[in-house]
């Protein structure tokens, strides 16, 4: 657990609840905003970082896709202030399924890549990612329906 969040893009990091609780690590990475994709992990440093919470459970019944655009917009807004050094941490409980799903949706839309390519890209950086089967289906549908560019 000692490893930190991983860099997906120069301004986008993927991690776990544990990572989100370490203020020193977040500050050392230049994190200014945190996208919390869980209902169980607290926003540890309200007032210090900009937070957005997406209360999704990690199970096959959850519809995470209804949050894709809001999450992508949040990352994009934080990215647009990256000239001032802004970086975003996307995390869930374990940094394996929900937060990885959001990062994949962001890549599919912002980089105009296919799910398979986005998945390989993120997997190379954080080998433990494993979005649940239902989330993968929702990502595939997001890709197929043509993420709004």
TrEMBL record:
- The question of whether Nucleus is a record keyword is answered with yes
Q: Which Pfam families match?
A: DSPc (PF00782)
Q: Which organism is it from?
A: Laticauda laticaudata (Blue-ringed sea krait)
Q: Extract the signal peptide range.
A: none
Per UniProt, which keywords does this protein have? Answer: Hydrolase, Nucleus, Protein phosphatase
Q: Family membership, please give it.
A: Belongs to the protein-tyrosine phosphatase family. Non-receptor class dual specificity subfamily.
Tell me which residues make up the Tyrosine specific protein phosphatases domain.
Answer: 72-126
The molecule here is called Dual specificity phosphatase 2
Look up keyword Nucleus and say if it applies: yes
Which gene carries the instructions for this protein? DUSP2
Q: What GO biological process terms are annotated to this protein in UniProt?
A: endoderm formation; negative regulation of MAPK cascade
SUPFAM superfamilies, per database record: (Phosphotyrosine protein) phosphatases II
For this chain, one GO molecular function annotation is: MAP kinase tyrosine/serine/threonine phosphatase activity
> A cellular component term (GO) from this record?
cytoplasm
Domain Tyrosine-protein phosphatase: from-to ranges: 4-148
